[in-house]
Write a structure and sequence with these properties.
Blueprint (H helix, E strand, L loop, with lengths): L1 H12 L3 H17 L1 H12 L1 H22 L16 H32 L6 H30 L2 E2 L5 E2 L1 H21 L13 H18 L21 H17 L3 H7 L5 H6 L5 E2 L2 E2 L7 H24 L6 H29 L8 E8 L5 E5 L2 E5 L3 E2 L4 E4 L7 E3 L6 E2 L9 E8 L2 E6 L11 E7 L5 E5 L2 E6 L3 E2 L3 E3 L5 E5 L10 E3 L8 E8 L5 E9 L10 H24 L6 H26 L4 H24 L6 H20 L7 H6 L1
Parallel strand pairs: 5-12, 14-21
Antiparallel strand pairs: 1-2, 3-4, 5-8, 5-9, 6-7, 6-10, 10-11, 12-13, 14-17, 14-18, 15-16, 15-19, 19-20, 21-22
Helix pairs in contact: 1-2, 2-5, 2-15, 3-4, 3-5, 3-15, 4-5, 4-7, 5-15, 6-7, 6-12, 6-14, 9-15, 10-15, 10-16, 12-14, 13-14, 13-16, 14-15
């Protein structure tokens, strides 16, 4: 569902890049905050199995609601192809996303911990393998979805007007979620289920609170220091609980630097997708959409997890290097940092190819001669001469206050001034067809066409208006010596038909466009030949994207390698270092770092307001590199434990104490009596 969420916000709801990115990361953060709630429900009340089932139902309902919210015809009462009440769609989508966040967040800590519960003591190797396969399975699903979901999105559907099929793209995951829930429930009898052990979290909070309060009471020097600050809770709470909380807090302390990794990782669904939209998707004979680039991550995960598990880690072990979980996570953070350096390099290359658009009080003007005479046009500080049916090579940039005079002249004719109030911050085209006949048209394109599509507009040089139908889209009443609005089309060759009373039936009126690539814009001038039939002259307004999406592969490779050694290891580490009654709680703590990471993106992106995107990438890379060094130092002082052994020791001690209480006068053996 996330594969197309940012595009749904951007192009269906109509939010800009900044707001779409903000809402996207807010949603992701919420998905990773709710695991705390799921862990509490599982460990304290319902148990992991029932929590997974009940919250999966909420999850499925939320997915269905967002599918309904994307139905264009829901509020398109006048059937013009645009929702009449976009606020209704926004409200429904927010409700759907809230339910999804509750559902997916609630089950996240339980699913991995429930899987870990199926293994016995001494099966650590098999449990590690399970976590790798578990992560592989998630990403196999992700791979399928990131290929199929965009294909579903580009289908055309609708009752009264045909639109990109977001309802289908959101609806299929809803149906699959329902199927997966049924499959999970069918296997109920095969699972090992542990009963929840009361409100563990409440005990933890109360114990920590008492320890802090008791330490504060005994802060004077006359009271001897204790080995650990939680030992101040020993007066009220049993030693087992205090020991379990020590295990959790030591791991939680290590989690403090981790959100920075997720701040970078989750940008592949937002900033990296938007970066791909400014690139060319033609890789060899394959053409891919910007949102399909995320499949690279999933493909590499499916490849890299088995390679790491079966080849890289054993090879490192044979070399005698102790590649501990925390060392793996440090390497993962470093690789993610380098991925953003690679993204910054790609962005610099993209920026070199992007057209310059007017800013602030600037305007840009291009002249297009659609007449049969040569024309000379004078601007402040520059003069251009155009042959018939030609245009200036580039847009000319002026400060709106200094664009005081524009004059048109031709051989043997008077000079004609152009009087027009140019709108600042916009591009304009000056159409000229005679010394005393001209028209200024506002282009309406202040950025490269989005989603890698191509903008096409038509200029009519006939005496009467005409209609043009291109690939199912209709340009209605293109006026004489005027330009239509741009309409946008995906890559490929498009057919179009011109309908005009001026065109003889003997004339050909069906044409084909040039091959449209990615992110370009063209003006198609419909001129009249000597025989009165139409001909098409094509002028480039915005050059197509030239930087290939294949250049994103190195950054995806580095990030994926970082994810494999960081995320899979982190899941297993969180489970292995947690006491038996707090497995879900510590998994939720791990997932909480993802939420904080997304909040960091919101803060940095909101506070920075970078004029250059590459600078934002470099900032994130530098921040993670600093955090990586801090984490490496913290990991150096961490001591690995086996919670099962510690708890077994407590069980043994409790058993001894119970035996002593139940038999306070043990019978002496014969040897002792002889000695007496």
């Amino acid at each position: 569902m996330r594969a197309l969420l940012i595009l749904y916000f951007r192009y269906f709801i109509g939010w800009d890049d900044s707001l779409s990115t903000t809402i996207y990361h807010t949603f992701v953060a919420l998905c990773y905050l709710t695991p705390i709630l799921g862990a509490l429900i599982a460990d304290s009340w319902l148990g992991k199995f029932k929590t997974i089932v009940s919250l999966s139902i909420v999850y499925t309902i939320g997915q269905a609601v967002i599918a309904v919210s994307s139905i264009n015809d829901l509020t398109d009462f006048n059937h013009d192809g645009t929702p009449d009440s976009i606020s209704a769609h926004v409200a429904l989508s927010m409700v759907g996303l809230a339910l999804i966040a509750l559902g997916t967040g609630g089950i996240k800590p339980c699913v991995s911990a429930f899987g870990g519960d199926q293994f016995e003591e001494g099966q650590e190797k098999q449990r590690n393998r399970f976590f790798s396969i578990f992560y592989l399975a998630i990403n196999a699903g992700s791979l399928i979805s990131t290929i199929i979901t965009p294909l579903l999105r580009v289908q055309v559907c609708g009752i009264h007007s045909k639109q990109a099929c977001y309802p289908l793209a959101f609806g299929v995951p809803a149906a699959l979620m329902a199927v997966s829930l049924i499959v999970f429930v069918i296997g109920s009898r095969m699972y090992k289920k542990f009963q929840p052990q009361g409100n563990v979290m409440a005990k933890v909070v109360r114990c920590i609170g008492f320890a802090i309060k008791n330490r504060f009471r005994h802060r004077s020097k006359e009271f001897p220091k204790r080995e650990h600050w939680l030992d101040w809770a020993n007066e009220k709470y049993d030693e087992r609980l205090v020991s379990q909380i020590k295990m959790v807090t030591r791991v939680m302390f290590l989690y403090i630097p981790l959100p920075m990794f997720w701040a970078l990782f989750d940008q592949q669904g937002s900033r990296w997708t938007l970066q791909a939209a400014t690139m060319s998707g033609k890789i060899g004979i394959i053409e891919i959409q910007p949102d399909q680039m995320q499949t690279v991550n999933a493909i590499l995960i499916v490849i890299m997890v088995p390679i790491m598990d079966a080849l890289v880690y054993p090879l490192i072990a044979k070399c005698g290097f102790n590649f501990t979980p925390l060392k793996k996570m440090t390497v993962g953070m470093f690789l993610a940092s380098m991925a953003f350096v690679a993204a910054a390099v790609v962005q610099v290359e993209i920026d070199k190819t992007l057209p310059v658009f007017p800013r602030g009080s600037q305007v840009q003007v291009k002249v297009m001669n659609i007449g049969n005479d040569n024309m000379t046009i004078s601007f402040p500080g520059t003069t251009v001469t155009l042959d018939q049916m030609s245009q200036t090579n580039d847009f000319m940039t002026f400060d709106v206050d200094k664009l005081t005079s524009i004059n048109i002249s031709s051989a043997g004719s008077l000079v004609t001034p152009v009087t027009h109030s140019f709108e600042q911050g916009h591009r304009h085209t000056l159409l000229v067809w005679a010394p005393n006949h001209h028209r200024v048209v506002k282009d309406g394109l202040n950025q490269k066409p989005v989603k890698g599509e191509n903008g096409i507009r038509f200029v009519n040089t006939f005496d009467e208006s005409f209609n043009v139908t291109m690939n199912g889209e209709v340009y209605v009443n293109v006026a004489s010596h005027n330009a239509s609005e741009y309409q946008f089309f995906p890559s490929g060759v498009k057919s179009f038909t011109i309908n005009s009373a001026e065109i003889s039936q003997q004339c050909e009126n069906d044409f084909k466009s040039s091959y449209l690539e990615y992110g370009s814009a063209y003006t198609y001038v419909i001129a009249r030949k000597n025989d009165g039939c139409p001909e098409v002259k094509i002028f480039e307004d915005i050059a197509p994207n030239t930087v290939n999406m294949a250049l994103q592969i190195p950054q995806y490779f580095l990030l994926t390698c970082g994810e494999v050694v960081f995320s899979v290891t982190g899941l297993e580490f969180s489970y292995s270092q947690a006491p038996s009654n707090m497995k879900s709680v510590l998994q939720a703590g791990w997932l909480l770092t993802v939420a904080v990471g997304n909040i960091i993106v919101l803060i940095v992106a909101g506070a920075g307001q970078f004029s250059e995107q590459w600078a934002e990438y470099v900032l994130f890379a530098a921040l993670l590199l600093v955090v990586c060094v801090i984490f490496a130092i913290m990991a150096r002082f961490y001591t690995y434990i086996n919670p099962a052994e510690i708890e077994a020791q407590f069980d043994e001690d409790e058993k001894k104490k119970y035996l002593e209480k139940s038999n306070p006068y043990p019978k002496s053996d014969s040897f002792s009596q002889t000695q007496m």
